[in-house]
């Protein structure tokens, strides 16, 4: 099924992006090259729809990704013709094109200076601020990017996308506590986002299993307990959530393996783990659900085709690994 | 299941057409009888519709309704976890309308942009990855974030 041009294309596979950008000539041909903003001409010409501009934006992103600069410039021209040079969103797209066209780091520094110039005129231009942060990160100046992002969040604390970016930046730097804090802020803003719950669980699992964390210590158990709860919450928000069950299985297996070695636990704080019998049952549930999902997805049953193939493969590998290690876990 | 619903709807339509035709014939007969009865001056029988035609009309309407209801798609889930699970499990295929096209307002997981973050897209990295993918023969390396 062809991907729709109405959705942001950044998560698509390269093949899908190529497919989208190959639609560019047809889309550009079929829609009028200029749409006037004046109400008088709107009476006589075909009316514009919001979808058209979404399409142009997504087409622009796909074409840039696949290296079709000509079509990207055409899309940008149309956006500029409609919304003007000083529209903040359009300015961000112009910057994006310049970043893509830049041949070396010197030219990128020029683009960065341009962003700074724009921001010195109007420092509430959030799309350009985000572009500047993304460019800083892309140039490898990650700590600069993080501090700019913190300043942006001081000024606009309800921007869930920015909090999420901050969490990823902290994660790349290995600052687990800060990353988890930032992602919790995202959850405050979007409490029903099941993928963010799963992501937070993944981060807490990473924090627990990071080389420096050490086992048996307080934070280690706390992270594991919280990860367990996050994954359980993501499943509660979304039936048959492959990623949630995968994480649940991972965490419960880890906890069971640990408690097989040392039976001591139960510090009476709010992050204590549930009792081993419950964890055992959770593990069994996750295994059963995962194998059901893998079986259906492998058979391409109708109603089970929405899963990402890579995720299904990973789940199958986890199940196989678990099956081979089963005698030790069960005892 | 669509052919069952279509057959039932067509059958109901035939029944309804038959009932209409019967009613029309009945009224034609009545007016003829009324014209002749003025000559013979017999009792003025009321031109009420016979009850079997009325029943047929009602039954035909119900049958058509049944056929149409059987032919509609399932209603969308109203529970959050069921709806979210449908998105994850079925993807686009779970959200097609009667013409078999994906609904216009279908966006997949609406919280996905919190992980893909289009405002912070690193276009140079994406271009590098795409170039790498093309170099590898356009098959492997689907790891696009």
TrEMBL record, chain A:
Record-linked InterPro entries: EMC2-like, TPR-like_helical_dom_sf, TPR_EMC2, TPR_rpt
Keywords: Endoplasmic reticulum, Membrane, Repeat, TPR repeat
Pfam families xrefs: TPR_EMC2 (PF22890)
Gene3D superfamilies given in the database record: Tetratricopeptide repeat domain
Annotated compartments: Endoplasmic reticulum membrane
TPR repeat copies, ranges: 160-193
Membrane topology, record value: Peripheral membrane protein
Residue ranges of domain EMC2 TPR-like in the record: 112-211
Main location: endoplasmic reticulum
Similarity comment: family membership: Belongs to the EMC2 family.
Function, as annotated: Part of the endoplasmic reticulum membrane protein complex (EMC) that enables the energy-independent insertion into endoplasmic reticulum membranes of newly synthesized membrane proteins.
Name the UniProt record assigns to this protein: ER membrane protein complex subunit 2
Organism: Cercophora scortea
Organismal lineage: Eukaryota, Fungi, Dikarya, Ascomycota, Pezizomycotina
From TrEMBL, chain B:
Keyword match Transmembrane helix: yes
Similarity comment: family membership: Belongs to the membrane magnesium transporter (TC 1.A.67) family.
Keywords, alphabetical: Membrane, Transmembrane, Transmembrane helix
Biological process per Gene Ontology, one example term: protein folding in endoplasmic reticulum
Signal peptide: none
GO cellular component, one term: EMC complex
Subcellular localization, as worded in the UniProt entry: Endomembrane system
InterPro entries: EMC_subunit (IPR053279), MMgT (IPR018937)
Protein name: Magnesium transporter
Pfam families the record matches: MMgT
Keyword Transmembrane helix: yes
Membrane topology: Multi-pass membrane protein
């Amino acid at each position: 099924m062809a991907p729709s041009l109405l959705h942001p294309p950044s998560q698509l596979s390269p093949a899908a992006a190529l497919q989208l950008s190959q639609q560019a000539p047809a889309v550009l041909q079929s829609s009028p090259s200029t749409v006037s903003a004046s109400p008088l001409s709107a009476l006589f010409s075909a009316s514009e729809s919001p979808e058209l501009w979404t399409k142009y934006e997504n087409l622009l992103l796909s074409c840039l990704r696949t290296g079709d600069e000509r079509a990207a410039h055409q899309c940008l021209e149309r956006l500029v013709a409609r919304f003007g040079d000083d529209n903040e969103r359009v300015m961000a797209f112009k910057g994006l094109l310049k970043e893509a066209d830049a041949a070396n780091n010197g030219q990128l520094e020029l683009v960065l200076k341009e962003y700074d110039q724009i921001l010195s005129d109007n420092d509430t231009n959030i799309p350009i601020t985000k572009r500047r942060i993304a460019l800083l990160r892309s140039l490898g100046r990650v700590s600069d990017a993080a501090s700019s992002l913190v300043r942006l969040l001081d000024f606009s604390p309800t921007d869930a996308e920015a909090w999420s970016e901050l969490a990823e930046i902290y994660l790349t730097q290995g600052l687990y506590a800060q990353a988890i804090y930032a992602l919790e802020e995202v959850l405050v803003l979007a409490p029903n986002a099941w993928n963010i719950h799963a992501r937070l669980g993944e981060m807490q699992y990473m924090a627990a299993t990071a080389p420096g964390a050490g086992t048996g210590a307080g934070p280690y158990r706390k992270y594991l307990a919280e990860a367990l709860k996050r994954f359980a919450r993501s499943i509660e928000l979304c039936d048959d959530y492959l990623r949630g069950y995968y994480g649940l299985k991972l965490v419960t297996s880890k906890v069971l393996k640990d408690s097989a070695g040392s039976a001591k636990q139960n510090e009476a704080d709010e992050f204590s783990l549930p009792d081993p019998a419950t964890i055992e049952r959770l593990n069994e549930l996750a295994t059963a659900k995962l194998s059901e999902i893998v079986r259906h997805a492998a058979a391409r049953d109708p109603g089970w085709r929405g899963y990402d193939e890579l995720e299904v493969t990973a789940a199958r590998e986890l199940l196989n690994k678990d099956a081979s290690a089963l005698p030790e876990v069960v005892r | 299941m669509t052919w069952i619903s279509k057959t039932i709807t067509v059958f109901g339509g035939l029944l309804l057409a038959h009932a209409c035709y019967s009613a029309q014939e009945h009224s034609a007969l009545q007016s003829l009888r009324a014209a002749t009865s003025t000559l013979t001056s017999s009792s003025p029988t009321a031109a009420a519709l016979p009850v079997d035609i009325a029943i047929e009309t009602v039954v035909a309407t119900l049958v058509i309704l049944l056929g149409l209801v059987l032919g509609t798609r399932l209603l969308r889930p109203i529970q959050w976890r069921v709806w979210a699970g449908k998105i994850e499990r079925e993807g686009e295929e779970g959200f097609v309308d009667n013409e078999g096209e994906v609904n216009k307002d279908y966006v997949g997981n609406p919280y996905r942009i919190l992980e893909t973050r289009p405002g912070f897209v690193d276009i140079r990295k994406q271009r590098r990855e795409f170039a790498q993918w093309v170099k590898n023969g356009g098959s492997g390396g689907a790891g696009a974030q």
